[in-house]
């Protein structure tokens, strides 16, 4: 498999991960869902890219995260680097730079909000970038984007000027790339997990994932028990 995978992730620490979900299901449950989603993402990526072509750019303290041991085991064959930069857009730029340097392009960059992403989808967007020698941008249903493939590290620089986490982030990212002479190929659309409704839909779409398994166990709990789930670090 040509190129590499870059996963931009935040350590799934209770109180710091999936805060919108946490408002409905509690800090512990939300962080455990985030941990499950991260493991699903790392697993799918490892089915496409070999050792040496996987980069995990991590923010936060993994020693405080839920499922810490499982995440460390899964990431043992990855280049694990800290996220560099201030705001998230700057960290994305730095992540692409590091991945191109460490593992080569095209670089397929995803987050930890799409545990349903299938290895075939990841392989397809990488192939599209290689075939067209252009970026690939996969829209998210909330107006953002879930995957960006860069064929050259400088393509990601436009992200520094794009406002993130808005309903028009996907459109603005595509426009910024086009204005810089790198009009993106459109990739498949996926649903990010931000709200309870997203979690339910994604669990139904990908029932065999760790995320779906955790969600099914969670929805069976009484409301009073959802904030303290006994999840392991």
> What's the alpha carbon Rg, rounded to whole Å?
17 Å
Unreliable spans are: 224-233
* Total number of helices: 8
Describe the sheet with the most strands: 7 strands, mixed
Q: Can you tell me about this structure?
A:
This protein is of the alpha/beta class and 233 residues long. Helix content is 41%, strand content 14%. The protein has eight helices and seven strands; from the N terminus they run βααβαβαβαββαβαα. A seven-stranded mixed β-sheet has the order 3-2-1-4-6-5-7, with helices on both faces. α2 packs parallel to α3 and α7 crosses α8. The two termini are 33 Å apart. 50% of the residues are buried.
Write the layout of secondary structure elements.
Blueprint: E1 4-10, H1 19-25, H2 27-46, E2 54-59, H3 68-74, E3 79-82, H4 88-103, E4 107-110, H5 119-132, E5 136-139, E6 145-150, H6 169-179, E7 185-186, H7 196-205, H8 210-219
Parallel strand pairs: 1-2, 1-4, 2-3, 5-7
Antiparallel strand pairs: 4-6, 5-6
Helix pairs in contact: 1-2, 2-3, 2-8, 7-8
């Amino acid at each position: 498999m040509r190129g590499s995978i870059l996963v931009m992730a935040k350590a799934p620490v209770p109180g710091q991960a999936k805060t919108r979900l946490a408002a409905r299901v509690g800090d512990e449950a939300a962080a455990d869902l985030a941990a499950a989603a991260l493991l699903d993402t790392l697993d799918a990526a490892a089915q496409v890219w070999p050792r040496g072509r996987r980069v995990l750019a991590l923010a936060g303290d993994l020693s405080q995260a839920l499922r810490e041991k499982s995440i460390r085991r899964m990431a043992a064959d990855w280049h694990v680097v800290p996220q560099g930069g201030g705001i998230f857009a700057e960290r994305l730029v730095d992540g692409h730079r590091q991945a191109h340097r460490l593992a080569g392009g095209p670089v397929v960059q995803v987050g930890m909000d799409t545990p349903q992403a299938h290895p075939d989808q990841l392989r397809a967007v990488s192939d599209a970038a290689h075939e067209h020698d252009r970026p690939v941008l996969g829209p998210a249903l909330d107006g953002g984007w879930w995957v960006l493939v860069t064929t050259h590290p400088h393509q990601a620089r436009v992200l520094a000027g794009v406002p993130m986490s808005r309903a028009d982030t996907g459109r603005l990212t595509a426009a910024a790339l086009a204005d810089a002479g790198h009009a993106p190929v459109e990739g498949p659309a996926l649903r990010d997990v931000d709200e309870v409704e997203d979690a339910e839909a994604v669990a139904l779409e990908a029932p065999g994932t760790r995320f779906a398994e955790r969600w099914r166990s969670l929805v069976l709990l009484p409301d009073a028990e959802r904030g303290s789930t006994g999840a392991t670090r």
